[in-house]
Amino acid sequence: MIKKIMIATDGSDTSKKAAMIGIDIAHRANGSITAVYVMEILRLAHLPGYATMPGLKEKILELMQEEGQQATQFVEDQAQMMDVSCDKIVAQGSPSEEILKISQSQGMDLLIMGSLGRTGMEKFLLGSVAEKVVLQSPIPVLLVKGESTI
Length: 150
What we know:
This protein has helices at 13-29, 56-81, 95-105, 122-125, 129-136, and strands at 4-8, 32-39, 85-92, 110-114, 141-144. The chain is an alpha/beta fold. It has a five-stranded parallel sheet with strand order 3-2-1-4-5, with helices on both faces. Strand 2 (32-39), helix 2 and strand 3 form a beta-alpha-beta unit.
């Protein structure tokens, strides 16, 4: 039985669509959800001036934290409207690795995420977070299709 559902969100329209589906499943199963946003801080080191400009690193981290809070708050707000219990996690690290680690450590029954978030073209160059999660997850993963721009 599916009782604990993790919704990985990046704040994109596709992840919002995935959240709505996850909340509906949790509501029907009388389950709960955990909204997870992962701040990918490793990529920041490649930004020009990231390490040398005073305050830039802190400001970017602050903005990422705020974005994570907004993304998970959207999920929580939607869950409250459906009377579904919701926890929120904002983590740092590699999105695919953190999503997998959190889903396992929290004992999730189902992981839901969008198949196309903010990195539409990148998935062809680097491999998408969704693909990595699907290939490595020991628990079921439900991918919600995003609107393709190609």
